[in-house]
Amino acid sequence: MAAPFFSTPFQPYVYQSQQDAIIPFQILGGESQVVQIMLKPHEKIIAKPGSMCFMSGSVEMENAYLPENEVGIWQWLFGKTVTNIVVRNSGPSDGFVGIAAPYFARILPIDLATFNGEILCQPDAFLCSVNDVKVSNTVDQRGRNVVAGAEVFLRQKLSGQGLAFILGGGSVVQKILEVGEVLAVDVSCIVAVTSTVDIQIKYNGPARRTMFGVSSFYF
User: Fold this and answer.
1) Minimal CB count within 10 Å: which of 37, 55, 88, 185?
2) Rounded to two decimals, what is the model's pTM?
């Protein structure tokens, strides 16, 4: 039977950026990866605690609480740290820093400007960011999405126009949902979605998360 005319196939995840100033980075390794980011003088990145792997001599690191990320109370309730590390190049020339995945995972670069400045991702998916990226954890008050477990209750939102790096385990693919297209996906297999994707939980045997497309993207 032929697929509906609006059905689109899965594709390997490919980094895309529409910005003129490309931030130089390189992802190293196979199953357990490290992202190496070049930093201009006075440029900084924000990363999750314990993720720094190596850095050049001109780069300095400090722990900081970032109130603009609005994560303190929710992170504290679920027993997670409320601080991030700030890595800054204090020297007169370019430096570099290596940020490592804390477990076996792929590091996925996300240019938020390409996705209308906002994506929703799994809790703890955020690894690090450069420039304008805000990290917050949101609670969906709609009754249809309230199920037991922090995985659904505590959703991580990345917003802004900067470059973010998130973590995804296994083989990472991407899918562009056309308007009206519906896809059933296992709950644990979604890494991130754009904010225009409508997600509903259906209790039909093993839990599945049904996604309704509005010219949207997820991976």
Assistant:
1) 185
2) 0.78
Position 7 in a domain: no
In 3D space, the residue among 119, 139, 135, 126 whose CA is nearest the CA of residue 99 turns out to be: 126
Same-domain status, 143 and 191: no
Q: How many domains does the chain have?
A: 2
Is residue 167 domain-shared with residue 206, that is, in the same domain? no
Q: Based on the fold, state whether residues 205 and 98 are members of the same structural domain.
A: no
For 52-71, write each residue's pLDDT tens digit: 999 999 999 988 766 555 55
- Is 121 in the same domain as 213? no
For residue 89, give the nearest of 43, 139, 53 by alpha carbon: 43
Per-residue pLDDT tens for 137-194? 765 544 444 444 334 544 788 999 999 999 988 888 888 888 888 888 877 788 888 8
C-alpha to C-alpha distance for 39 and 59, rounded to whole angstroms: 9
CB 37 within 8 A of CB 130: yes
